[in-house]
Fold this sequence. Notes:
Keywords: Hydrolase, Protease. Pfam families: DUF3857, Transglut_core. By secondary structure, the protein is an alpha+beta fold. The chain has eleven helices and 38 strands.
Amino acid sequence: MFLQPNPTQILTPRLLFLLLLLPWAGFSQGNLYQASQLPDSLVSGADAVILKERHQMKILSPDRAEGSFFKAVTVFNEQGEYDVERVAFYDDSRSLSNLQAEIYDGNGSLIEKIKSRDFIDQAAVDGFSVITDTRLKYFSYTAPRYPYTVVFSYEFNTSNTAFIPAWSPLSGYGVGLVNSSFELEIDGQIPFRIKEKNFEGFAIENNSSGRLLQYRLKNIPPFEAEEMSPVYRAFAPQLLVSLNEFHLEGVDGSATDWTSMGRWQYHNLIENRDQLPPETVAEVSQMLEGITDPREKVKRIYQYVQDNTRYISVQLGIGGWMPISAADVDKDKFGDCKGLTNYTKALLNSQGIPSNYCVVWAGAEKRDMEADFASMQGNHVILNVPLEQDEIWLECTSQTMPFNFLGDFTDDRKVLVLDPKGGYLKHTPAYNGAENLRLVKAKLALATDGSLKGEVGILSEGVEYDQRLSMRDFSEERRDTYYKNYWDYLNGIKISEVAWYNQKDSVRFGEKMEVAVLDYLSQAGNDLFFKPNTVDRHLSVPNRYRNRQLPFEVPRGYLHKAEFVIELPEGYVLPEIPEPVTIDSDFGKYQMEIIRISEREIGYQRSLELAPGQYAKNRYSDYRNFRREVARAENINLLLQPK
């Protein structure tokens, strides 16, 4: 679940005071686009500053709305380019008018005006989307120097009212705000709901009255992206609005909670789209002949989908939310997340195995459905298969994903289950602690010339598996670069005889290789020194902040273990074995022990388990001290003396 800190713990009284008393005297509309006129309080630490953002919309009926959008942003560096609006979408249900953009230099002088006819018009496709009925208009501009300002605006009319854009006045870390406003007028016959998220601690003006919503936020300095900070939306203000009666691509809808929303989506998006050709049903039935275990049946069908289909993005049907039919996926052998999930569901249903079509917010950063605010949410779908004693989760878009494994793309978050009797929220599995295992084993030899060489094996499970699986497709050059960066503390490391193996059924990824380092040992007189943690050091210590402003989090825990056998150089002995090290804290546990196997061999064993959690900012120094102690233990030196 997302960390939801109280913003009053984030915004100190001093910062709140500054927000209210920023020096804006003399900052007029006439010089608004002159970057030097912006107050230092907004520019300091900023990649971009939003000068003015205005969202206006009027709901005339459940199937008719109109509105406008305006945004002016000053960009100070390449990172700030992400806050420039360049794109407007349209389709058969949404029309655009008065689309334009203006570019100003740092002195506020107009250098380019882009009219609607100058925008590039194309299908809304990306690297995966090849079938879509949505189009976009955009402009391209490369600034010769920073700062510069972009003003972007358009008006629109639409028959779709299922999606009321949320108002998020603060767009991200490193972005200052001068003025952002939101205005929404709703016809008197349409019931609606709103949710104000994280408003406390921000001086948000609310001039709403009756069926007119009016909000404004002004003069907010950029937030610094402190290390281990929560995702920005966890504490930034946001206004959510949803109509109880709405329209989506020719279909009327009504929903007030997740029960009614899930029921409406089921009957209007996926119902009766699971019909399969009889020959496909017969083929799958024959494939499962003799198998009685329901779990094994699900596994075989999942493998069948992976072997016989491929993923492409398809944005057609009810605003891109309706899956293409199971029959079409079966015929064409491709589909998007919706189509492939629906196809898998249909195959299971053909064998008498019920399953749940689930809508989710996907991404490496965990994001929940808003439990107390039902609306059209999510950007991906997955499949849930309930069994008598268990349940199975399937990511249907991947041809390589292991069975019953979601990875960090959809783990540990609330999803919406579409059901004919009514929708409900369900939580996906979390991968935490020891489930995210990385085990590094090595048999290494030290030589009198100072070199180190030997065999290294790395085993990864859980999210660690997910993060390393893509290495299978690395070229030799990219592979070598990866390992050299991974072992950046080993100067001149050479890697050879690399082998990777994917144990898909057990969700394990393995790596084996030979390593060699020329100058691993250091010398002082006749003595030699070396670090026994040769190939798995945790040396990272988070940054120090004199006055940290934000809480911090460890979104996923892990268990990293190291087991080495090290042969000492001929003619040298290890006179003393250090005591075992144990570091126990609220954040995790560290254990390290060195054992003498023989006169020429020692064993090194290390375990670091990091717990997931969300923590107040006043605990940050404690966490940093824990990581500093770990790094110190990881970096110890051992003395070797001549016999």
